[in-house]
Amino acid sequence: MSEKITLEVARYSPERDAAPHLEAFEVPFRKDWVVLDALNYIKDKTDGSLTYRWSCRMGICGSCGMMVNGEPKLTCATFLADYAPAPVRVEPLRNFPVVRDLVIAMTDFMHKLKEMKPWLIRREEKPLSEGEYLQTPEQLDAFKQFSMCINCMLCYAACPVYGLDPLFAGPAAIALAQRYNLDSRDQGAKDRFPILSQHEGIWGCTFVGECTQVCPKHVDPAGAIQQYKLTAATEWFKSLLLPWSGK
Amino acid sequence: MDVTNHDVLLVGGGGAGLRAAIAVSEVNPRLNVAVVSKVYPMRSHTVSAEGGAAAVIKPGDTLDEHAYDTISGGDWLCDQDAVEAFVKESPEEMLRLEHWGCPWSREQDGHIAVRAFGGMKKMRTWFAADKTGFHMLHTLFQTTLKYDAIARYDEWFVTKLLVDDGRVQGVVAIELMSGKIQTITAKAVILCTGGCGRVFPFTTNASIKTGDGMALAYRAGAPLKDMEFIQYHPTGLPFTGILITEAARAEGGYLVNKDGYRYLQDYNLGTPQPKPVLRSMELGPRDRLSQAFVKEHEKGRTIAGPYGPVVHLDLRHLGAKLIDTKLPFVRELCIKYQNIDPVKELIPVRPVIHYMMGGVSTDIHGATPLAGLFAAGEVACVSINGANRLGSNSLPELLVFGARAGKVAAEFASRQKEPSNAVLAQANDEQRRIEEQFLRKTRGSERVAVLREQMQETMESSAGIYRSGSSLAAGAETLRKLQERSANLAIDDHTQTFNTDLVAALELSFMLDVAEAMIHSALRRTESRGAHQRTDFPARNDEKFLAHSLVTRTAGGRPRVEYLPVKITRWPPGERVYGQPAQKVGAD
């Protein structure tokens, strides 16, 4: 008789349920199985209607973020063995509207990401015939960690500020704005200033630092936000003292 | 049924689709372009590509050398005019991505850095550490956000191409969030849905790689080309199939058998040197390395593991510093998923299904023989990859042929009239089919997962690294039975909202069509070339098979295979030579 483990999975169908509830499933316990393997087992063998997102199962596509025993995790990188023999509770990411079972709506983030103008802004484009923009390894290091964000939404699920104020731009969007602001090739910091410096931009953050702790890719959104607060404060004072500058 | 209309519609939002969408907007900013994707575009499988992207930019390298490496790597099945266009346009496309912000790894002086890669005689592979595809995809996606003309249908699943009057005029798609089935008409449709690795049980491919675009085209009457050529990557982690990038060997990793012996020297791939040698040993092409694994196993020199035989990838001599700078993702994946630290331990690896050389047949511009239908990226077969793709050619292919397809589709769309009403009737039929065969059908004894698993086992046992006439014939027969059984399929989920059970059933039916196309193409190619190795026909036969297979779907649903000569421009078929003359990487 092989070992088993129980998964308590949040279920919610807007067509059938008034509210989410937990459903228990027993699955084989294998030490090399991650939570996602257990969900796939349930979907394949027991209940094809179990609904969740996943794709690469190697921690890079950012699809399979869920709450595992109350913590935001990539389920493809979260081993059952770390929880066994106790039951493992799997729920949709906190702070988001639930679409169905373990699927959340991330339209809000997609909107916020675009608002940050996350693309390289140049006052003048260099023609391709002149080759690459030079960038030393040190210049690359200045923004590299912020470019590692996989948009998995774990930081939004961990962020107490976003939980209270959905207007807050949130950790990943701000980190991605900084990814471009700090890129030596970019000249768009001024274009991103208005959206970042508004009340719902960086100032919402109370520096709890939960976002940085849960990030599976070691991005430091909390650091990005604190860094930008300093920049924004400096810019704000400059605009008071030297109202004609930067025009 | 709701109907929306666009000038150009992209199906698939990975590297090729996003590059094509931008190309359309660049050609004609007034064109209304939309990207429909079954996942948010930044989740697309381009994200998983690790090692790099080849383009000639360094002094001492030439376009002809890149072309020759590609053609010999492809065992002379590449169309050489396509390869010449590809190597010529790659550098410009890669630079464009740099100008859009891609964080390429750099030399000390700030220039783009390049690394060695399998089958390449010069160092020409650009990289962003070992997350190249991830950075390319996010750069492309974030860049598309500045184009207001590019509309998106995120998490919509396309079920059918609408064809009338010999021309593709749109698609039927399901909005996953609501379950709504909708018609999206367009004057041109570009398929950029990627590969089909999921027809096999053990693959590096993400769960979304189910050959949707190939099946959509096949069902619409467009031919699929060279479907018998599927690539096994020699170094996947057992159980998960997670890819350990070729860059690990390019940076100096060794492949060793159970005795710690660098066994590739026994397979006509050169003599082992302490430092990596281009086009030699561990930097040989993927087909030859995966075949060597099988032979090594037959000699009893692999290591038995819980998920079958493995060999070892040894990176220990590279040291923590190099691994952390050049291969950080390899270390992260090994530690996180295999509980092994490659700085101190050997990595168990085995060949794993990785890439589809074949696909929807297109010309050099990305146009298929079916008017209004275009394709680019892994879903397409131009063909620059021939019988075996070289590592680091697929990422620039996305850019070069994504851009090309975008441009010609834009020009095509500008000349077309609005879609006909006849396609709306077809769309209604398709809606009825989905509802009757899946959503409302409660009686049926077959489960999606069961049929899928049997299809995957069939493909591995009949069309693996080595195939034979008898294994393929048996596979064809099993697939036919699985097709019949799939008519008796019933899903568990009969609701509208985010119905992934429905999606899985539709993906399964796509995969069964793709699998049949592969098996029948493989059955008729009675020679061995590149990734297609027939134990009953072990030699290459240029007299008969210097030709692409073209498989079309007959009225009865059975595949019909024909042949199209390979385009040879300047490189007549020759012997594939690896391992000599010795040429070392870098100054050493």
Description:
The complex is a heterodimer of chains A (247) and B (588). Chain A has 247 residues and is an alpha+beta fold. Chain A has nine helices and seven strands. The model of chain A has no long low-confidence stretch (mean pLDDT 94). In chain A, helix 6 packs across helix 9. A five-stranded mixed β-sheet of chain A has the order 2-1-5-3-4. The N and C termini of chain B lie far apart (66 Å). Chain B is globular and about 65 Å long. By secondary structure, chain B is α/β, with parallel strands linked by helices. In chain B, a hairpin with a 2-residue loop joins strand 13 and strand 14 (308-314).
Topology diagram in text:
The complex is a heterodimer of chains A (247) and B (588).
Chain A: E1 4-11, E2 21-28, H1 35-46, E3 65-68, E4 71-74, E5 88-91, E6 98-100, E7 103-104, H2 107-115, H3 137-144, H4 154-158, H5 160-164, H6 171-181, H7 189-197, H8 210-214, H9 221-241
Helix pairs in contact in A: 6-9
Chain B: E1 3-11, H1 15-27, E2 33-37, E3 53-54, H2 63-73, H3 80-99, E4 114-115, E5 125-126, H4 132-144, E6 150-154, E7 156-164, E8 167-175, E9 181-191, H5 212-219, E10 224-225, E11 230-236, H6 247-250, E12 254-256, H7 286-298, E13 303-305, E14 308-314, H8 319-326, H9 328-338, E15 347-356, E16 359-361, E17 373-375, E18 380-381, H10 394-414, H11 422-439, H12 448-462, E19 466-467, H13 469-486, H14 500-524, E20 533-534, H15 542-545, E21 547-553, E22 559-565
Parallel strand pairs in B: 1-2, 1-9, 2-6, 9-17, 16-18, 19-20
Antiparallel strand pairs in B: 3-5, 4-5, 7-8, 8-9, 10-16, 10-21, 11-15, 12-14, 13-14, 14-15, 21-22
